[in-house]
């Protein structure tokens, strides 16, 4: 009987330890933006919506890209999608310090849809979450 109680207690401790150690991944911050992704913004642009002045939630795709916070060859938009934060002396270090996985919301300053197969979104205003 004592052996059985010890086994039950050890099993419960093991389960408690496994639950406490997580296994849960980091939760992405709750962010409000006009578009939930660059893809959504480009699809709206292709449909004729003016996205200038709108906000886009962007998950940074690589470390220190000199302002380019997102790039993807996207088959849904049939082209390459770039999101760039325009830097100057006042924000260059901060923008270049963005890391892969950071979440930023950018306000679209302009868009260039070069030959309809490359979409360049430029933003001056942004907020890191």
Radius of gyration over all CA atoms, rounded: 22 Å
Q: Estimate the strand proportion.
A: 25-35%
The largest sheet has its strands arranged as 1-4-5-3-2
Sequence of secondary-structure elements: HHEEEHEE
Task: Tell me the span between the first and last alpha carbons.
Answer: 55 Å
Specify the biggest β-sheet.
5 strands, mixed
The CATH topology is given as OB fold (Dihydrolipoamide Acetyltransferase, E2P)
What's the pLDDT, averaged over the residues? 86
Structural category is alpha+beta
- The total of helices stands at 3
- Dominant shape: elongated
The strand count comes to: 5
Low-confidence stretches: none
**Domains counted in the coordinates: how many?**
1
CATH C-level class is Mainly Beta
CATH architecture: Beta Barrel
Describe the structure.
- The structure is a single chain.
- This protein has three helices and five strands; from the N terminus they run ααβββαββ.
- The protein is of the alpha+beta class and 129 residues long.
- The chain has one domain: OB fold (Dihydrolipoamide Acetyltransferase, E2P) (Beta Barrel), CATH 2.40.50.
- A five-stranded mixed sheet has the order 1-4-5-3-2, covered by helices on one side.
- Strand 4 and strand 5 (118-128) form a beta hairpin.
- The model has no long low-confidence stretch (mean pLDDT 86).
